[in-house]
Amino acid sequence: MKLLHLSDIHLTAPGATIGGRDPRANFERALAHALRDHHDAELMVITGDLSDWGDLADYHWLRQRLDEYPLPVRLCIGNHDRRAAFLSVFPDLADENGFVQGIHDTAAGRCLFLDTAHPETHAGRYCEDRLGWLEARLAEHDGPFLLFMHHNPMPVHLAPFDQIRLLDEAPFRQLVGRHRAKIRHVFFGHCHLPLAGSVAGIPASSLRGTNHASFPLFSETRLLSASDLPQAYGVVFFGDDYVTVHMVEFGYDGAIRVEGSPDYQAWDRETMVR
């Protein structure tokens, strides 16, 4: 089974740019690239920061664009989103408490989409109501589960990001830790970085956004670092006893040498020597 993971698309008004890049144009590039190479994916999930300013017009445009897309897509919200504006366009994605949380069953497991957004802050929160929702979902099904969220649920040891991580990380990790045998993977966004690790013993991963990318500058203590690294999305493969996660740099503008090109050099599959 194949799943596509996108994050931090940061939609803006048509023609507006972030870091010299056009988020709408880059999201369109990501959708086209993903459909060309991965039209057989069972699901696409976008883990938040759908709009850069939480503008209603961005959500209307996103709804129209995804309604036209031939793959099923599920959404989380992030710190740049506005829950009320989002739910006015996607009302079917609200849980019983008014948070953007839900369920989608796939061949690889039951996907749970979590809402870690909190008004007036870029940090994430996961309150008692949301913890209760997650506890109930994990208890009512045998799994396996795949969890999708925006904020990093563990420290990444980059000060600017850890200041705005999931601030309720301890109770969150305690909860998922009690169910770790049923959870295959945790997917998140927010940091605009390729990251891998574990959350309460559960494998976790993140990736760059589809527009602007960060760089892990460990000496920085206050500001988020920007870079000209390529935009990316994720491709995830599931087997009975493994998960493989790729970060596809669809925004890379350099050379990719393919068989038949003049400077192509094949790898010897047996000796791995060119």
From TrEMBL:
Keywords tagged on the record: Hydrolase, Iron, Metal-binding
Sequence ranges assigned to domain Calcineurin-like phosphoesterase in this UniProt record: 1-193
GO molecular function: cyclic-nucleotide phosphodiesterase activity; metal ion binding
Keyword Hydrolase in record: yes
InterPro entries named in the record: Calcineurin-like_PHP, CNP_phosphodiesterase-III, GpdQ/CpdA-like, Metallo-depent_PP-like
Any Pfam family: Metallophos
Coiled-coil regions listed: none
Family affiliation: Belongs to the cyclic nucleotide phosphodiesterase class-III family.
PANTHER family named among the record's database cross-references: CYCLIC NUCLEOTIDE PHOSPHODIESTERASE CBUA0032-RELATED, PHOSPHOHYDROLASE
Protein name according to UniProt: 3',5'-cyclic-nucleotide phosphodiesterase
